[in-house]
Amino acid sequence: MEFIWILFAFACGLAVKLINLPPLIGFLLAGFLLNYAGLEPSNTLDSLANIGITLMLFSIGLKLHVKDLLKREVWASTLSHMGISTIMFAGIALLLGTLSLPYFGVLDFKTAALIGFALSFSSTVCVMKLLEESSELKTRHGQLSLGILVMQDIVAVIFLVAATGKVPSIWALGLFGLLLIRPIINKIVDKAGHGEMLPLTGLFLALGGYELFYLVGVKGDLGALIFGILLASHSKAAELNKSLMNFKDLFLIGFFLSIGFTALPTLSMIGMSLILTLVILVKYALFFILLTKMKLRGRTSFLSSMILSNYSEFGLIVVALSVANGWLEKEWLVILALAVSFSFVITSVLYRNVHRMYRKNKDVIRRFESSDCLPEDRFVQPVNSDILVVGLGRVGRGAFESLKGFVGDTVAGMDADRNRINQMQADQENVFYGDGEDADLWERLDTSRIDLVLLALPAAEDTTNVAIQLRKANYTGQIAAIARYQDEREILINSGIDNVFNFYTEAGTGFAEESLALVRPMDNATPS
């Protein structure tokens, strides 16, 4: 039976990838096809899905800092959006009921509000997958979106306590003691090394956090998230997350398959779910208005609103509880499951083109900006810099340090990870915060003095986008970039990049040259 799941997931995932769509759309389709074929889900599939979600929340925690949740644009926008959207969606549901549409006509204000509340959540799974695939987790809009999702999770915990009547155990107060044992947790990660023990340690902490919180009557998923947050400042947090990435992605396939097993829909259910899917436009508009009112830049508001405009798997939990308590008809579970699936597809397709959409409509979007943006969203001009390194991860940081040794302080660095920039600025490094894919940044940045831009970004698509925006901003200097695979080289060259270095080939060449100098130093200095 498990092989059938893998077969369908592989076939559907590959099929949609061949037409340039995200594989998760294929996994959703596979679930519905398996259900239509009459196959029954087993406990194994549910276990895989639960482990995938737990690891995903642990990974979110590794990238999140508590101070980010305390920012007004995070908590205020989340609570305002959920409150307003619940009322608006409830009103829309009651209005549709007056039109005698199937399943809407029997709703009263209480049940309509429950559906509105379920629709107010955004999907953590969908958002995380898209941000990871586009390497935007550390960007301004990526961190903002993650903060909003975490705040929604906190609201979810409060709802579950209220709806189920299960008050956490008195022992739950002992969870605050986790702050005291944080040094011990850090020590465990230190001792795990860099091999197979590191991902095993991550699994142990993620699942252990889940079980610990569950035992004291608190939502287990929140435990995985908290354990991740406790390790967010650890020097190995990024390495730990990378070691878990493939495990998490494989387990999450079970989650996408499980959605399709919710129930088989009728035509009327599909029609009603499509109507709910259209309400995403209201969700997007509300997010965009609130975020711009919080003095965020138009681009940040646009990208965040776009990726958060979907329905959440938690909405299924809300409706399932409502069905179990007799508040809603069981058909609503199918309708919402379809709406969640459709919203995943729409968000996945649109977000892959979101930067192109912004470039085409930036003049209109900027009209909604506040004249006094938040300090974090203001641009900084690098001073006295002839060379700019974009992306200060391991490769970019190495290039930055080497260039600094050759040309001194005339090299500047830029990165979209604000925490990394703050650490480097504390060390008196010539670096500044900036998202390379931000069209506004290149328009407002004076690049006339910069002779060379090095793009040390992990994804070829991101590198291509930055190069195109640089040229559109009338940058006339040289652009160099790195590529991990040979087939990426031609794509990067065609985007306007002057020189592309194959990461693995160049690393091997440099290693060979420096090693050879140890045994043949005179040969290098003697002309042949």
UniProtKB/TrEMBL annotation:
<feature type="transmembrane region" description="Helical">
    <location>
        <begin position="250"/>
        <end position="267"/>
    </location>
</feature>
<keyword id="KW-1133">Transmembrane helix</keyword>
<feature type="transmembrane region" description="Helical">
    <location>
        <begin position="48"/>
        <end position="66"/>
    </location>
</feature>
<feature type="transmembrane region" description="Helical">
    <location>
        <begin position="303"/>
        <end position="326"/>
    </location>
</feature>
<feature type="transmembrane region" description="Helical">
    <location>
        <begin position="332"/>
        <end position="351"/>
    </location>
</feature>
<dbReference type="InterPro" id="IPR003148">
    <property type="entry name" value="RCK_N"/>
</dbReference>
<dbReference type="InterPro" id="IPR038770">
    <property type="entry name" value="Na+/solute_symporter_sf"/>
</dbReference>
<protein>
    <submittedName>
        <fullName>Cation:proton antiporter</fullName>
    </submittedName>
</protein>
<feature type="transmembrane region" description="Helical">
    <location>
        <begin position="7"/>
        <end position="36"/>
    </location>
</feature>
<feature type="domain" description="Cation/H+ exchanger transmembrane">
    <location>
        <begin position="7"/>
        <end position="348"/>
    </location>
</feature>
<keyword id="KW-0813">Transport</keyword>
<dbReference type="InterPro" id="IPR006153">
    <property type="entry name" value="Cation/H_exchanger_TM"/>
</dbReference>
<keyword id="KW-0472">Membrane</keyword>
<feature type="transmembrane region" description="Helical">
    <location>
        <begin position="112"/>
        <end position="131"/>
    </location>
</feature>
<feature type="domain" description="RCK N-terminal">
    <location>
        <begin position="387"/>
        <end position="502"/>
    </location>
</feature>
<dbReference type="Pfam" id="PF00999">
    <property type="entry name" value="Na_H_Exchanger"/>
</dbReference>
<feature type="transmembrane region" description="Helical">
    <location>
        <begin position="143"/>
        <end position="163"/>
    </location>
</feature>
<keyword id="KW-0812">Transmembrane</keyword>
<feature type="transmembrane region" description="Helical">
    <location>
        <begin position="87"/>
        <end position="106"/>
    </location>
</feature>
<keyword id="KW-0406">Ion transport</keyword>
<comment type="similarity">
    <text>Belongs to the monovalent cation:proton antiporter 2 (CPA2) transporter (TC 2.A.37) family.</text>
</comment>
<dbReference type="Pfam" id="PF02254">
    <property type="entry name" value="TrkA_N"/>
</dbReference>
<feature type="transmembrane region" description="Helical">
    <location>
        <begin position="273"/>
        <end position="291"/>
    </location>
</feature>
<dbReference type="InterPro" id="IPR036291">
    <property type="entry name" value="NAD(P)-bd_dom_sf"/>
</dbReference>
<keyword id="KW-0050">Antiport</keyword>
